[in-house]
Write a structure and sequence with these properties.
Shape: globular
Distance between the termini: 13 Å
CATH superfamily: Flavodoxin domain
Order of helices and strands: EHEEEEHHEHEH
Number of helices: 5
Bound molecules: flavin mononucleotide
CATH architecture: 3-Layer(aba) Sandwich
Radius of gyration: 15 Å
Number of domains: 1
């Protein structure tokens, strides 16, 4: 299964790489366990039409707003939004996973929720900073379920 992600300070990259390693370990025990193809998007990534479904994993960087009733501005992660907006990519997005920091209260993982709304995809899960091993196990299982249901 495919995961597109962006990471500015490395937390989301760490999470996705650990998710990939966990999937590989599962796959060594059981060849039916799905492995993860991850693609990191940054400001220099050319927009491409994806040909297979994917999950998106995005951290939250917002300027202004309180996450409830006034404007907030996405900063630093827009290249992932632009990438998903391209061509038919929104239709292939199976869901969004958010990362953030709970100190941001109502704005915790808000970018992922905004992507979910914009791309009509479910907000699937969140994790804080680099995420825990338990979150990796839980999110891996969830992605496998969603992937299998979508590609049936
Ligand atoms: C300038 C700045 C703004 C941030 N804004 C938010 C926010 O609005 N909501 C949130 O949950 N986390 C916020 N964070 C925390 C990051 O989302 C969090 O550290 C995340 O793990 C970063 O992921 P990355 O290392 O993959 O870039 C902010 C961090 C910075 C530095």
């Amino acid at each position: 299964m495919n995961v597109l992600f962006i990471s500015i300070s490395g937390n989301t990259r760490s999470f996705v790489q650990r998710l990939q390693r966990f999937a590989e370990e599962e796959n060594q025990k059981d060849p039916n366990a799905l492995i993860i193809h991850a693609k990191e998007i940054d400001d220099n990534t050319p927009e491409e039409a994806e040909t297979e479904p994917f999950f998106a994993c995005v951290p939250t960087y917002l300027e202004g707003g309180n996450g409830v009733d006034n404007g907030d501005q996405e900063i630093l992660t827009e290249s992932l939004r632009d990438y998903i907006e391209f061509h038919n990519n929104p239709k292939l997005c199976l869901g969004v996973i958010g990362s953030g920091n709970k100190n941001f209260n109502e704005q915790y993982c808000l970018t992922a929720k905004q992507y979910a709304e914009q791309f009509s995809a479910p907000f699937l899960a969140d994790f804080e900073l680099r995420g825990t091993d338990n979150e990796i196990h839980r999110i891996y299982q969830l992605l496998c379920e969603k992937w299998q249901a979508a590609v049936k």
